[in-house]
Design a protein that fits this description.
Elements (H helix, E strand, L loop, with lengths): L1 E8 L9 E5 L3 E9 L6 E5 L4 E9 L7 E5 L3 E9 L8 E5 L2 E4 L7 E4 L3 E5 L3 E4 L2 E3 L8 E6 L5 E4 L7 E3 L5 E5 L10 E7 L3 H9 L3 E4 L5 H4 L2 E6 L4 E6 L12
Parallel strand pairs: 1-3, 2-4, 3-5, 4-6, 5-7, 6-8, 7-9, 7-10, 8-11, 9-12, 10-13, 11-14, 12-15, 13-16, 14-17, 15-18, 17-19
Antiparallel strand pairs: 18-21, 20-21
């Protein structure tokens, strides 16, 4: 599917279930995708090699909740994505074992949640130039990433405090659901470039970012926090790699 303009999905009382399914290596490219969610409008991208690409995607533009899912090795790319332009609080973007990218060459890509929720699971990643969750009137405005034993979740590309604009308490939730699979590597759920430790620690202290570490052992929780990796020049929220001591034996 190749659309050089705007593609809009909507439906009436008599026509329900309008949807786009991009499956098993299929591809769809367009300038703008907008769908209202009325009467079960849905976009599904699933399967290795499947690709959805748009300059702008607007998910949920009416009073009816919309759902977009990207799963099973698929990939979605936008420059700007906005979830919940309408009044429905339950629109969803589900990213499961898949990759979502919201960037552009100038670094001004934007991923914004106005209403509804975004879920990342099973190694899913969201890479964006900026992440914005600013609608304080929408109590269900949230991004949740659930980690197994390997790093995944949100990766921001810009070394700029304004690239992470969170004004909704609990707007980002990171769930560490398993022990690290590799103790010599960090386990992170959110990563930003540069030394932004103070910024991330402030968002944690203010409750804009919350973390669930109940599945981690007491020993592992000691390594949990906000860290700066000088070698990679990035800051992250998660579990630092384990550092083994050295000793010298003299005979």
């Amino acid at each position: 599917l190749n659309c050089a303009g705007r593609l809009m999905l909507s439906s009436s009382r008599n026509r329900t279930g309008n949807r786009i399914d991009i499956l098993d290596g299929g591809q769809a490219e367009m300038v703008t995708l907008e769908f209202t969610g009325a009467n079960r409008c849905q976009v599904t991208v699933a399967g290795t090699g499947s690709l959805f690409r748009a300059v702008e995607a607007r998910v949920g533009t009416s009073a009816s909740a919309a759902t977009m899912s990207v799963s099973d090795g698929a990939r979605a790319e936008t420059e700007v994505l906005t979830l919940g332009l309408g009044t429905a609080n339950t629109s969803q973007l589900l990213i499961d074992n898949a990759t979502f990218v919201s960037t552009n060459a100038s670094g001004s890509g934007r991923f914004e949640i106005r209403r509804g929720s975004v879920s990342l699971a099973n190694g899913a990643t969201l890479t964006a130039d900026s992440l914005c969750i600013t609608n304080t009137a929408a109590t269900t405005c949230r991004l949740t990433t659930t980690l197994g034993g390997r790093s995944a979740g949100v990766v921001l590309t810009q070394d700029d405090p304004e690239s992470l604009d969170l004004q909704v308490p609990g707007g980002v939730q990171i769930v560490f659901a398993a022990e690290p699979a590799e103790v010599l590597k960090p386990l992170w759920g959110l990563q930003v470039p540069g030394d932004q430790v103070a910024r991330l620690a402030g968002l944690l202290a203010d409750g804009m970012i919350t973390c669930d570490t109940t599945a981690l052992s007491r020993v592992t929780r000691k390594r949990f926090g906000v860290h700066y990796d000088a070698r990679a020049d990035m800051s992250f929220i998660g579990v630092a790699k384990k550092v083994f001591g050295t000793y010298l034996l003299l005979r």
